[in-house]
């Protein structure tokens, strides 16, 4: 056993500022409205998210370990520790070897840390022990660890901050260490991470040179490290990195300074810009810094950017990122469905940011956005069986399958040369219960509906709630008080923005349906009390903002928190999605869906199909004799967008041209 492994195993656990188990835990002095509910008090049941988490644990995470070994990520750590061989990382489209593949191992380890908290697993533990040992063996005596540099460019530590991703990978190492420390009381990864951070601080801290990483990430990791071990140096280093960005340290390079948010100081940048994942991770760190230091100006700067992003640069699904070339936001209302980049990692970053803003402000709009993004922009990134992944998530796939993004948008893949998304999905799904509820001095706030048991309160005054629901397929929710203290407390439940109406009943008493975004119940609860809520969940159309020229005149279908899409697999033979126009004034119906996902529901809609003979000229005047066409009407079903591409190749679209039946072709024109 190497000295580093021995040191990692025997170093005593650092003193923790808090014993709360969660991925984001503001300190007791942080300026936040809500605090996360300790994840040890959340048990997901056999509902929607419990099922997804089980698939992640039993299928996705083990598959991830296989792929990390196959791709060479694990071998790279052995090489960095002195083994013979050459560095392994697949070459990207630009002909460059990716220098950040260590981070995929760290994200996988974070996922396993959260999973092992819920239940032991001998196989996952053995794999994790192997990986932790590899990382510890690879770490240099001065704390530095990065296999790309150690194997391929020894002696050039922190020489390429723009593209080397050294601080980015250390940030993920820190987050993995925090997960193992908080969830399991295991300090091995934390010891490695703290030594790596000490090396960064010596190079780039207050006594070192100025510099920021081309890919933000370490900022939020450092603040969470500060929250975990209470070392002010980590908060100061995070502040330094955030305040130094936007002052030209990275330069313009390939895509311009905005690509890595170096075009304007974080406090001054008026809009989101550049690489979408980088922007989300940077703003996560900025929110963490703002609440820990009481910096309202910095928090307002992030909220201002968030407002602009949601209003002008966010797809219906919650996805962000419009351009493939630099994985970036586009101009305002530049939201093409077929060419959307909509990276899975960007959606995950958006969830992480919305959660931090919810904790900071208590405003329901952040919970609404988190829910929309989680269901419709994160979840499509993994197949229903948990074995394959999307890197990009377009809102339309043409029948020819291959838009400019390449084959990866045609169908999910088992892995990628740049495999940042799969392990990112693993760690989010492994910690999804962290995002359900919060607490404050008045009681508990439930922001996400899921079948679960919730426990909160001080020892001797613990409250236990059982939540039962088939959400998102059904709007009925039953909350039973299993245990409660004698004193009164407040139960606060978010009324989703889509839920305009519903019913609420407590102990056979009909309650007034609230107009406010939260249902608040202050009372002296008794064990056995049952609150029953029903959020009316009719299917409905959404019309595209006419400023989004790519989808002007189109509509989409939603029901509850889910966005729906049409898939060619559900059309009659010989009909393509290019020929379908939705008849908006025809009624919609809900019925069982065609997917192996009980009790998944589909929406039945009425459409018209238009066909015309092939012509060398695609433009015509409707009704002109020289451009004959045939039309017909039929019923089609739409499925939840997150479940598309699970039935083989075929066309798909979220946005479909729409028209009222009253202006559809006359029956006499139809054949």
Please outline the helices and strands.
Elements (H helix, E strand, L loop, with lengths): L2 H8 L24 E2 L5 E3 L3 H24 L1 H8 L21 H17 L3 H17 L8 H6 L13 H19 L3 H17 L13 H12 L2 H13 L31 H18 L2 H17 L31 H18 L2 H15 L17 E2 L23 H10 L6 E4 L2 E4 L5 E5 L6 E7 L6 E8 L5 E6 L7 E5 L2 E3 L6 E6 L6 E6 L4 E4 L10 E6 L2 E6 L12 E4 L5 E4 L8 E11 L18 E11 L11 E2 L2 E4 L12
Parallel strand pairs: 5-9, 17-22
Antiparallel strand pairs: 1-4, 2-6, 3-21, 4-5, 6-7, 7-8, 8-13, 9-12, 10-11, 10-13, 14-15, 15-16, 15-22, 16-20, 16-21, 17-19, 18-19, 19-20
Structure write-up:
The protein has helices spanning 3-10, 48-71, 73-80, 102-118, 122-138, 147-152, 166-184, 188-204, 218-229, 232-244, 276-293, 296-312, 344-361, 364-378, 421-430, and strands spanning 35-36, 42-44, 396-397, 437-440, 443-446, 452-456, 463-469, 476-483, 489-494, 502-506, 509-511, 518-523, 530-535, 540-543, 554-559, 562-567, 580-583, 589-592, 601-611, 630-640, 652-653, 656-659. It is of the alpha+beta class and 671 residues long. The strands form three sheets. A seven-stranded antiparallel sheet has the order 2-6-7-8-13-10-11, with no helix packed on it. Strand 18 (589-592) and strand 19 form a beta hairpin.
Short note summarizing the structure:
The chain is built from 15 helices and 22 strands. With 671 residues, it is an alpha+beta fold.
């Amino acid at each position: 056993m190497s000295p580093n492994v021995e040191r990692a195993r025997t170093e005593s656990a650092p003193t923790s500022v808090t014993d709360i188990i969660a991925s984001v835990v503001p300190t007791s002095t942080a300026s936040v409205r809500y605090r996360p509910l300790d994840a040890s008090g959340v048990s997901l049941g056999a509902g929607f998210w419990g099922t997804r988490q089980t698939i992640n644990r039993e299928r996705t995470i083990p598959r991830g370990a296989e792929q990390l070994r196959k791709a060479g990520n694990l071998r790279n750590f052995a090489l960095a520790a002195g083994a013979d061989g050459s560095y392994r990382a697949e070459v990207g489209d630009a002909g460059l070897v990716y220098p950040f593949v260590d981070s995929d191992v760290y994200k996988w380890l974070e996922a396993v840390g959260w999973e092992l908290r819920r239940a032991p697993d001998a196989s996952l533990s053995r794999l994790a022990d192997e990986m932790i040992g590899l990382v510890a063996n690879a770490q240099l005596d001065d704390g530095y660890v990065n296999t790309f540099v150690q194997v391929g460019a020894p002696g050039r530590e922190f020489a390429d901050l723009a593209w080397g991703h050294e601080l980015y990978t250390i940030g993920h190492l820190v987050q993995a260490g925090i997960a193992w420390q908080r969830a399991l009381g295991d300090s091995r990864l934390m010891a490695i991470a703290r030594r790596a951070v000490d090396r960064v601080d010596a190079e780039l801290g207050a006594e070192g040179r100025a510099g920021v990483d081309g890919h933000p990430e370490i900022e939020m990791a450092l603040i969470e490290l500060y929250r975990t071990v209470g070392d002010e140096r980590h908060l100061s280093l995070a502040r330094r990195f955030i305040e130094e960005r936007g002052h030209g340290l990275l330069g313009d390079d390939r895509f311009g300074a905005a690509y890595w948010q170096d075009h304007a100081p974080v406090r001054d940048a008026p809009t989101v810009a550049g690489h979408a994942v980088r922007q989300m991770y940077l703003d996560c760190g900025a929110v963490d810094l703002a609440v820990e230091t009481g910096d309202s100006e910095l928090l307002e700067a992030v909220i201002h950017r968030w407002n602009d992003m949601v209003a002008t640069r966010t797809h219906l699904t919650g996805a962000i990122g419009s351009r493939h070339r630099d994985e970036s936001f586009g101009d305002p209302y530049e939201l093409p469905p077929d060419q959307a980049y909509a990276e899975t990692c960007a959606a995950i970053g958006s969830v992480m940011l919305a959660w931090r803003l919810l904790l900071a402000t208590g405003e329901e709009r952040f919970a609404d956005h988190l829910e929309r993004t989680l269901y419709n922009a994160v979840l499509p990134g993994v197949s229903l069986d948990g074995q394959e992944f999307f890197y990009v998530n377009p809102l339309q796939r043409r029948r020819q399958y291959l838009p400019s993004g390449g084959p990866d948008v045609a169908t999910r893949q088992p892995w990628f040369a740049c495999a940042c998304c799969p392990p990112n999905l693993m760690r989010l799904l492994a910690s999804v219960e962290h995002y359900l509820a919060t607490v404050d001095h008045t009681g508990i706030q439930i922001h996400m509906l899921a079948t679960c048991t919730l426990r909160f309160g001080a020892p001797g005054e613990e409250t236990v709630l059982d939540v039962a629901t088939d959400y998102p397929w059904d709007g009925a929710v039953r909350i039973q008080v299993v245990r409660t203290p004698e004193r009164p407390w407040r139960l606060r439940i978010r009324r989703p923005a889509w839920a305009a109406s519903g019913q609420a009943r407590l102990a056979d008493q009909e309650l007034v349906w609230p107009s406010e975004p939260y249902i608040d119940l202050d009372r002296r609860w008794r064990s056995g009390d049952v609150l029953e809520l029903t959020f009316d969940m009719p299917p409905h159309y959404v019309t595209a903002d006419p400023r989004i020229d790519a989808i002007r005149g189109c509509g989409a279908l939603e029901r509850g928190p889910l966005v729906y899409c049409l898939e060619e697999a559900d059309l009659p033979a010989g009909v393509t999605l290019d020929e379908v126009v939705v008849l908006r004034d025809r009624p919609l119906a809900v019925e069982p869906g065609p997917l192996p996902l009980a009790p998944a529901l589909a929406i039945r809609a009425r459409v018209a199909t238009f066909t015309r003979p092939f012509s060398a000229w695609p433009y015509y005047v409707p009704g002109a004799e020289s451009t004959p066409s045939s039309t017909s009407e039929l019923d089609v079903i739409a499925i939840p967008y997150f479940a598309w591409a699970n039935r083989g190749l075929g066309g798909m679209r979220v946005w479909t041209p729409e028209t009222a039946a009253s202006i559809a072709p006359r029956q006499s024109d139809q054949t």
